[in-house]
Amino acid sequence: MTDTPPAFELLPGAPHSPVLLHVPHSSREIPADVRPGIALSDAELERELDHMTDSHTAEIAGRAAELAGLTPWRFVNRASRLVVDPERFPDEREEMTAVGMGAVYTRTSHREVLRPGGTDPAPLIERYFRPYARAMTDAVADRLAATGRAVVIDVHSYPTEPLPYELHGAGPRPPVCLGTDAFHTPPGLLAAARAAFAPCGETGLDSPFGGTYVPLDFYGTRAEVGALMVEIRRDTYMTEPGGPAGPGLSRLAESLAALVASVTA
Question: SS3 of 90, please?
Fold first, then answer.
């Protein structure tokens, strides 16, 4: 835990790189003033963080950035998704609200109480969610202005076995799942991802998680903004649920770097 509220960090890349590696769920940090609103013991909270944190994905993105020929930009969430989830809608459009996992989670991965009933999400939305969304919008706009296009590559991970909160957990769980959007994921981007991650094993499409992250200012209107979600099955690179990384991490970083290089070219 930390006394200084963590937020997010934009790590600059090469001026002419269109690629923005987005790492939204890698942190375990919860500000001290947010902790009292969470209805779990310290041990229960650590266990929940084990399940819900995309452990080591910031390191995968960081190593890929070092290996890529033209360094991509990185946008990294420095707060846990248990503070707010920046990739969820903060309103009725969010289907995960049905299981207590909208922008501000009220239930755990096992559908137990995370925050007490009647918790007002508005302060967390204003303090964390909206500044994050504005900063991501600005980061994408900056890449558009500098290069004429932007490619947002989301870097996530998911457990080998489905957790109770998953709405679509019954489908395939390949080593690498590629999440797509009909408008923002062109065939060339998808083909490049399949080729880049081939050394890591089978790649699947939109299962167990689908879709991409695109700031709403560009969603469905700016085809120059490409987007792809990379979901990595955790047993391929780490000890589950929240243990150390293994040798698979380097291979994944190399594949992500190959994707960045392909997209940049």
Answer: coil
